């Protein structure tokens, strides 16, 4: 049985990570500790440097090592990145088990299911490790029903118009 609160920001539009980081800033300003764990993000030096300036209130952990998007990697690189992502899931589980933070943002975790790196069951098992005071936020492009049913709040981010 899931114990913590789960928010999900998903969809094809831009702004999912931005919405999650907005929640991070809001919660950190209330004195809560926030961890951001990023999966499948590639290298975005400006964004990384900005988030790192928010430490120690908001701590950033990244598990993708390559600059290219996961779908653009060759098979060997995908295998290596898959191991990195699984290490990230294990890290997130450890954070939840030990109660190291009040808010845990798992940025692009939904992509792990989309790419077959993790299953819905893996994500459910991760959620079972949370305490009732932990707020968890997921982001990603696609959302399976199995994970959506576990959420307390689900926000779909779609572009209605783009240039």
Secondary-structure element order, N to C: EHEHEHEHHEHE
**Domain module count:** 1
Q: Please name the CATH topology.
A: Rossmann fold
- The overall pLDDT, averaged over residues, is 89
How would you summarize what this structure contains?
With about 160 residues, the chain is of the alpha/beta class. The chain has helices at about 15-30, 45-50, 75-100, 110-115, 120-125, 145-150, and strands at about 5-10, 35-40, 60, 105, 135-140, 155.
Give a written overview of the molecule.
By secondary structure, this protein is an alpha/beta fold. Strand 2 (34-38), helix 2 and strand 3 (58-62) form a beta-alpha-beta unit. The mean pLDDT is 89. The chain has six helices and six strands, in the order E-H-E-H-E-H-E-H-H-E-H-E. Strands 3-2-4-5-1-6 form a six-stranded parallel β-sheet, with helices on both faces. The protein has helices at residues 16-29, 45-52, 75-98, 110-114, 120-127, 145-148, and strands at residues 5-10, 34-38, 58-62, 103-107, 135-140, 153-156. The N and C termini lie far apart (44 Å).
């Amino acid at each position: 049985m899931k114990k913590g609160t789960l928010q999900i920001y998903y969809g094809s539009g831009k702004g999912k990570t931005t919405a999650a980081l907005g929640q991070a800033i809001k919660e950190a300003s209330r004195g809560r500790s926030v961890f951001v764990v990023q999966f499948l993000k590639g290298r975005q030096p400006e964004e990384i440097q900005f988030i790192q300036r928010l430490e120690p209130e908001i701590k950033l952990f990244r598990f993708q090592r390559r600059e290219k998007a996961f779908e653009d990697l060759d098979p060997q690189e995908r295998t290596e990145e898959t191991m990195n992502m699984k290490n990230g899931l294990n890290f997130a589980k450890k954070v939840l088990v030990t109660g190291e933070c009040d808010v845990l943002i798992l940025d692009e975790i939904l992509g792990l299911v989309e790419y077959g790196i993790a299953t819905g069951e893996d994500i459910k098992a991760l959620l079972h490790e949370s305490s009732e005071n932990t707020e968890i936020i997921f982001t990603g492009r696609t959302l399976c029903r199995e994970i959506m049913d576990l959420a307390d709040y689900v926000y779909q981010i779609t572009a209605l118009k783009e240039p």
